Amino acid sequence: MVGPSRPLFVLFGSSIVQFSYSNNGWGAILADIYARKADIVLRGYAGWNSRHALKVLQQVFPKDAAVQPSLVIVYFGGNDSMAPQPSGLGPHVPLPEFIDNMKKIALHLKGLSDKTRVLFLSPPPVNEEQMLHCLGVEGRTNEACGVYSEACLKLCQEVDVKCIDVWTALQQRDDWKSVSFTDGIHLSSEGSKIVVKEILKALEEAEWKPSLYWRSLPTEFDCVAIDLVTQDEDKSNLSVSEFELERLLKWEQ
C-alpha cells in the first residue's frame, strides 16, 4: 500500500476487461480520467464466463479484506452466450445459469461493505463477419448477445444494481460494425470511448453518497502549486485541477 488512500475501483470480467488497457481501451481511459482521484485495479480474465467468475469470487473479493472497493465494474456474458458444443465443452453457460451466477456475483459484491457500489456492463454486440475473418470464431451471434444483455439488464433491476446497456449503446452509430471492434469482439478505441461515456453518465446520475463521479472526487495534493510552461499566458497560472479539468471536459461533450 502507498498513501494517501484513494477510492478503489475494480474492473472485473473477461477479455473485454483484461484488454481494456490496450488500444486506448476503456480501462486506460478511466485510469486517466481518475488520475489523482481513484485507483483503478484490473481483474480481467480472457476466455472466462460467469461460471469461472463465481468460482474465484471469494478469492478476488474476500469479505474480510482490510480495504474494500468503492466501485466494482463487472462484465461477463459474451462467452456465456456462445452456442453450446456437442462435447459439452466450451464457454457456453445456459441462460438460467448465467442469470443465477450474475445474481450471486452482484449480491456478494453488494455485501462487501456499506459503501461498495456495483455497476454491471451488459454483453456488447459483435460483428460476426469480422469475428470470423479475424479470429475464425463461430457460434457467437449478435442475436444471442442481445438475449444475454437483456437478461443482465432485467436481473440488475431485480437486485438494485446499476447496469449499462452496452449492446444497445454501441449500435447507436450507423457505422458501429466497422468502428467498434478490433476483431469483431474486442473493443477498439472508438468502442471504448462509447463505453467510457456511458460509465461516466451512470456515475454522474447515481444518487450515491459519496458520489464517485470524477468531478465530485477531490484531486490528491491539489493544494500544491506548480508553474505550468505554456505559450498561452492566460493558462500559465492555472491550478493543477483547473489544468486537468480543461483536458478532461471532452468526456462531458
From TrEMBL:
Belongs to the 'GDSL' lipolytic enzyme family. It comes from the Eukaryota. This is Lipase, GDSL. GO terms for biological process: lipid catabolic process. The lineage of its organism: Eukaryota, Viridiplantae, Streptophyta, Embryophyta, Tracheophyta. It comes from Corchorus capsularis. Residues 11-193 form the SGNH hydrolase-type esterase domain. Pfam families: Lipase_GDSL_2. InterPro entries: Iah1-like, SGNH_hydro, SGNH_hydro_sf. PANTHER family: ISOAMYL ACETATE-HYDROLYZING ESTERASE 1, SGNH HYDROLASE-TYPE ESTERASE DOMAIN-CONTAINING PROTEIN. GO terms for molecular function: hydrolase activity, acting on ester bonds. Keywords: Hydrolase, Lipid degradation, Lipid metabolism. CDD domains: Isoamyl_acetate_hydrolase_like.
